[in-house]
């Protein structure tokens, strides 16, 4: 199928883009990489009256760091993120997760902002934002505001953004010390959306005890799910098989996946348990220096 008729605009800068969003309201859509929007339009599941092409906004294509926060512009291509040495050194979980997004051709066009705003509950970047306690910077013609990932994702394909707003950059805190991370997912085929995905980042003290941990899962709820009880269970402890089992059991009791054509709810719950043990264990070993963090 072909998309419905639409008007096309290509703003030269952010103020012009925000002005177009303000005037178009619910009838306008931003297009950047188009990896999600174009297929939806071709199937007539979305019929915007106008498209606002922000590929000319190269001021939003950047990767910066001040040693406390890693900053990524919304127009940064996923492949650029994947191959960035700065991101690999300061936030390796992002590097590991992005490699699972679609295929190389997808990552060459897709942007970090587009994937986050699309908010698919099985997608890698929303999950990483939740796992790393990221902050999203959102602009409209009247104001700029910041929203934590935990407050940004509301429900399936829905975020805390109004039609006149645009995601401009994301900020990720840089963890210091003995830090390890891990991202794993299970999909039916390489490049498919994950049936279930898990992301973990943790920090150890000098005695191999966990001082901080964030664990999140995708594909098990309408939004990426942060397992807040993981810190309560593991903080101050060395990782043991018994501790891993406790976390896995908590995850199994926390998730409420739905059955569909690809997997039953029971299978997704089992995947959540298995992937939890894998990512927590691998992050722990990486933090100890037993494995190289990506």
UniProtKB/TrEMBL annotation:
Keywords carried by this UniProt record: FAD, Flavoprotein, Oxidoreductase
PROSITE patterns: FAD_PCMH (PS51387)
InterPro entries, sorted: CO_DH_flav_C, CO_DH_flav_C_dom_sf, Diverse_Substr_Oxidored, FAD-bd_PCMH, FAD-bd_PCMH-like_sf, FAD-bd_PCMH_sub1, FAD-bd_PCMH_sub2, Mopterin_DH_FAD-bd
Origin superkingdom: Bacteria
UniProt source species: Fictibacillus enclensis
MF GO annotations: FAD binding; oxidoreductase activity
SMART domains hit by this protein: CO_deh_flav_C (SM01092)
Name of protein: Molybdopterin dehydrogenase
Keyword Flavoprotein applies: yes
FAD-binding PCMH-type domain residues: 1-177
């Amino acid at each position: 199928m072909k998309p419905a008729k639409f008007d096309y605009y290509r703003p030269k800068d952010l103020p012009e883009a925000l002005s177009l969003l303000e005037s178009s309201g619910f009838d306008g859509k931003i297009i950047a990489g188009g990896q999600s929007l174009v297929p939806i339009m071709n199937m007539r599941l979305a019929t915007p009256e106008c498209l606002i092409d922000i590929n000319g906004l190269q001021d939003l294509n950047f990767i910066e760091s001040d040693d406390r926060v890693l900053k990524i512009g919304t127009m940064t291509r996923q492949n650029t993120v994947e191959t960035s040495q700065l991101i690999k050194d300061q936030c390796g979980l992002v590097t590991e997760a992005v490699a699972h997004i679609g295929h190389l051709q997808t990552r060459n066009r897709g942007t970090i902002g587009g994937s986050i705003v699309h908010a698919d509950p099985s997608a890698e970047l929303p999950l990483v934002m939740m796992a790393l306690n990221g902050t999203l910077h959102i602009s409209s013609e009247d104001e700029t505001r910041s929203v934590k990932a935990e407050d940004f994702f509301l429900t399936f394909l829905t975020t805390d953004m109004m039609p006149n707003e645009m995601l401009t950059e994301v900020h990720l805190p840089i963890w210091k010390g003995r830090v390890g991370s891990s991202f794993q997912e299970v999909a039916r085929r390489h490049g498919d959306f994950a049936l279930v995905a898990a992301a973990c980042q943790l920090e150890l003290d000098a005695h191999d005890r966990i001082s901080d941990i964030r664990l999140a899962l995708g594909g098990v709820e309408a939004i990426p799910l942060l397992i807040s009880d993981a810190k309560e269970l593991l903080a101050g402890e060395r990782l043991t098989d018994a501790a891993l089992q406790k976390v896995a059991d908590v995850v199994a009791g926390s998730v409420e996946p739905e059955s569909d054509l690809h997997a039953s709810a029971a299978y997704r719950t089992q995947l959540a348990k298995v992937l939890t043990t894998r990512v927590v264990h691998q992050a722990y070993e990486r933090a100890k220096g037993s494995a190289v963090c990506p």
